[in-house]
């Protein structure tokens, strides 16, 4: 499969996955809010975030393993691939054992330090149930999923996840009505996802010759501590806000954050799915050693990420607060009208997406050790500023900490790649971020001026959202035609060619 076909297939499937994930992410929390209220929703979100810190044990190994697999897969070196997979599988099974211990500690300690209206035994069981899915992921499925993704077959992983997300939503809807207990709902979700590793294993056995007798190749694993900084920064970014809010604010505030972040995270995942689809092909090009070709692919990669991210997050800046008002209609135990927080958090995640190509380039080049310090510094900035500001500013304080930490790392990586990997002039980045920044500001101001964004129903919200999306895409495309005409042409040329071919075929028929 050539790179263009791989990217196209992967992108279609990952975008479909993100669409299904977004729908699921809207349905499941709303069911929890409707049946159990903001405190339970905040409790589930808080425990889940604490459990996610198990990924720190992983030490960033996923990115390291992906990078180590690109070359042997390109060269069809089955022994090398087998050695890496055997070492990775052994490592993740060890992580699974550590995770069980960590999960039990969280289950025991959490109710001692967080004020909740549930018995310690209830919180203990809920924590164990929430931890089951992550345990299965590390202990059984992650190794094969990394192999499939590294081989540019992201589409299979995406399609598999789509099936189980849909089954999970169905299970949640049914169990909420039958049992009306949050533990029962989450237990059914965990059982649904238990089947996923079986499908990954069957696919790998059919398409790859993994020799279990090949000695474990620990060369890639030796870089895991170098990847720890990258991993630490990401998980601080993903989890610090909820942890800080859990410690310093009521669980209702955690619920407010989780509802807003649910939508923002879905849009971020939609944008990052483009990166996930492109990254294996980009790594394949970089493994070829042609710096000029690598820079050409990276320029298009960067532009595509920024174009998609600005469209999604500008619409989010304008429409998210009104969506949450409709989404939480009838929920009166917390104030979900948080426009300032909405804008700040959206901008923070836009910065995250802007820097994604630079993070991916360091991964693909295996420069984990050289760039680890930027991850540590980002994590420190995020924690310190969030803790300082949360008492006075609450939700806004943690959003500011997140935005400043990510901005630092983005700028640090731009400079690093210029000096050590891509050797691109920094002015290329400055021009792009300036142009897309102007697009975001102009589009947002036009929409805020033109529309009354209060929406009494989903139908009215969707109508206004469609109008906002149209304005944003027109402004963005118009400005990009002035500054980035060639990049737009390269992105849309395959689509235009396909349309022309279909027209010719229709005429011939």
UniProtKB/TrEMBL annotation:
Keywords, in A-Z order: Cell membrane, Membrane, Sugar transport, Transmembrane, Transmembrane helix, Transport
Keyword Iron-sulfur appears in the UniProt entry: no
Localisation per UniProt entry: Cell membrane
Domain of life: Bacteria
Ranges annotated as spanning the membrane: 12-38, 50-70, 91-110, 122-142, 154-176, 182-203, 242-264, 300-324, 336-354, 396-417, 429-451, 457-484
Keyword Transmembrane attributed: yes
UniProt membrane topology term: Multi-pass membrane protein
One Pfam entry name: Polysacc_synt
InterPro entries recorded: Poly_Biosynth_Transport, Polysacc_synth
PANTHER family: PSMA PROTEIN (PTHR30250:SF26), PST FAMILY PREDICTED COLANIC ACID TRANSPORTER (PTHR30250)
Name of the protein in question: Sugar transporter
Upper lineage: Bacteria, Bacillati, Bacillota, Clostridia, Lachnospirales
């Amino acid at each position: 499969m050539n790179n263009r076909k791989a990217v196209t297939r992967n992108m279609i499937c990952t975008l479909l996955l993100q669409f299904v994930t977004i729908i699921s992410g809207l349905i499941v929390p709303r069911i929890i809010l409707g049946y159990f209220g903001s405190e339970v929703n905040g409790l589930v979100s808080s425990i889940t975030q604490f459990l996610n810190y198990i990924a720190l044990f992983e030490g960033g190994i996923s990115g390291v393993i992906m990078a180590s697999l690109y070359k042997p897969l390109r060269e069809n070196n089955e022994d090398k691939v087998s050695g890496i997979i055997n070492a990775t599988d052994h490592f993740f099974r060890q992580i699974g054992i550590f995770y069980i211990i960590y999960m039990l500690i969280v289950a025991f300690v959490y109710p001692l330090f967080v004020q909740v209206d549930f018995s310690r035994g209830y919180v203990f069981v809920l924590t164990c149930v929430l931890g089951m899915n992550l345990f299965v992921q590390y202990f059984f499925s992650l190794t094969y999923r990394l192999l499939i993704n590294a081989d540019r077959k992201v589409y299979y992983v995406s399609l598999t996840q789509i099936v189980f997300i849909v089954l999970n939503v169905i299970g949640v809807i049914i169990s909420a009505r039958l049992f009306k207990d949050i533990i029962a709902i989450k237990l059914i979700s965990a059982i649904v996802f238990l089947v996923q590793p079986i499908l990954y294993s069957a696919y790998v056995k059919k398409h790859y010759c993994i020799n279990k007798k090949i000695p474990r190749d620990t060369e890639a694993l030796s870089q895991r501590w170098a990847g720890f900084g990258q991993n630490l920064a990401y998980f601080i970014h993903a989890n610090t806000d909820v942890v800080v809010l859990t410690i310093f604010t009521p669980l209702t505030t955690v619920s407010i954050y989780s509802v807003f972040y649910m939508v923002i995270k879905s849009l971020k995942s939609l944008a990052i799915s483009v990166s996930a689809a492109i990254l294996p092909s980009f790594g394949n090009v970089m493994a070829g050693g042609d710096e000029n070709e690598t820079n050409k692919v990276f320029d298009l990669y960067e532009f595509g990420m920024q174009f998609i991210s600005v469209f999604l997050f500008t619409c989010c800046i304008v429409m998210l607060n009104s969506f949450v008002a409709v989404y939480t209609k009838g929920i009166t135990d917390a104030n979900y009208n948080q426009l300032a927080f909405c804008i700040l958090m959206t901008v923070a995640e836009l910065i995250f997406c802007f820097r994604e190509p630079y993070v991916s380039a360091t991964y693909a080049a295996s420069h984990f050790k050289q760039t680890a310090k930027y991850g540590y510094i980002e994590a420190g900035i995020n924690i310190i500023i969030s803790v300082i500001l949360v008492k006075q500013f609450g939700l806004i304080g943690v959003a500011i900490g997140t935005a400043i930490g990510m901005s630092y790392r983005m700028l640090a990586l731009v400079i690093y790649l210029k000096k050590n990997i891509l050797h691109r002039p920094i002015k290329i980045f400055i021009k792009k971020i300036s142009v897309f920044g102007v697009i975001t500001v102009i589009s947002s101001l036009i929409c805020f001026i033109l529309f009354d964004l209060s929406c009494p129903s989903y139908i009215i919200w969707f109508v206004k959202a469609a109008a906002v999306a149209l304005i944003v895409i027109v402004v963005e495309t118009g400005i990009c035609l002035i500054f980035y005409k060639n990049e737009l042409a390269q992105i849309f040329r395959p689509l235009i060619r396909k349309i022309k071919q279909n027209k010719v075929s229709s005429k011939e028929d």
